[in-house]
């Protein structure tokens, strides 16, 4: 029997890594914290702590940053979905980060198109946290960095090897024999990265929290999926539940259900146990496991539920 308590990752017990990526020493990005909750994610550091190593077809992570701290421009081969748990965040994209941007408030969700350079920064007044869903068991094979990010990092002591691992010259580390630096993308390769405008991205890729609260008034809102508000099939689907759409009934799926709490406290019960889930907590319910999930008190309550599908973890899908 699977130990359900061991499949709950509490917000207050998240273990950060401050050297997860190549821009860890770059001014403006050197205060960020990376969290890997389910699966290995795309961290480039051996110091990254992984809370639940088994992957359900996707990875779950998080980024925590103080005000004015940013994550540098990068791209992914598979889906990257963020929702804002705490704070106010600006997401920007394009070769130089100036093709378009959108500001997300707490609870908003962004299914960033694959194949574009993207970055984000905390523009709030307090420490902020965004939760991330990355497509694929291996999260698409890693991160593709804009050339200037690799060059800036090298100037501050960090070198990324072609093997996808970081080496810190400030700690006396150097590339092992036979390992060359990660090559910069050529001009021809860079031309393959689209530069969509804000008006092209926001309608099909961003969903606002209060719109989802209204949509979930009677039934869970389909957020990402073939019939979702954000129509996509990235190898997983995302639903949104609130205190009105949650039902005190048995839920049983032949898929992996990952519960990510946004607001309020939720009572999760299963045969032989129960737990109260709080904002920022994540729970991985395995396939074919009966469970019940309802708010444990009155007031605002909401969560995102991620479920694996048979769709391949590839580029963003559209008709």
Automatic annotation (TrEMBL):
Write down what this protein is called.
Cupin domain protein
Superkingdom of source:
Bacteria
Q: Report domain Cupin type-2 positions.
A: 67-130
Coiled-coil regions listed: none
Q: Which InterPro entries match?
A: Cupin_2 (IPR013096), RmlC-like_jellyroll (IPR014710), RmlC_Cupin_sf (IPR011051)
Its keywords, alphabetically, are: Plasmid
